[in-house]
Design brief:
- The protein is mainly α and about 130 residues long.
- Helices cover about 80% and strands about 0% of the residues.
- The protein has 5 helices and no strands.
- The longest helix has 29 residues, at about 105-130.
């Protein structure tokens, strides 16, 4: 057994664990929590087959949440406004020094959250509308 396999396994476990942890945090904060939990579980299940039983229930819920997020123009507008608010908050937290936890580390994480939210919103919209209009 070569050194590459254990290193690969540790890297995949670390990346999957981070995705699951961030996804769980985003379940209560604005963001695509279930989709990140799903991505983390898919990575982990590739190396740890015992976790495969959790993938399908999470996938079902994540896809339903993704479809619901673009089900109406009002929901799309709400998601876009949430993304813009995260982006603005990131800029404010990066530049205003008297705010708690101010600085670009907090600002960058908020901006990154908005970028992820927009990317997943676009993905959800394209996925739902591609299925409706084949």
């Amino acid at each position: 057994m070569g050194v590459g396999k254990p290193v690969r396994r540790v890297l995949i476990a670390g990346a999957g664990g981070v995705l699951v942890a961030v996804g769980v945090v985003l379940l209560v904060l604005p963001g695509p929590g279930l989709l990140l939990v799903l991505a983390g579980l898919l990575l982990l299940a590739a190396e740890f087959p015992a976790l495969e039983r959790y993938v399908d229930p999470v996938r079902t819920r994540a896809m339903k949440a993704a479809e619901d997020s673009v089900a109406s123009p009002l929901r799309i507008a709400g998601s876009v406004l949430a993304g813009l608010a995260l982006l603005a908050a990131g800029v404010v937290w990066g530049t205003v020094r008297w705010l708690p936890l101010s600085g670009w580390s907090t600002g960058t994480s908020l901006i990154l959250s908005s970028v992820i939210l927009f990317a997943l919103l676009i993905w959800s919209y394209r996925r739902v509308h591609a299925r409706r209009n084949p």
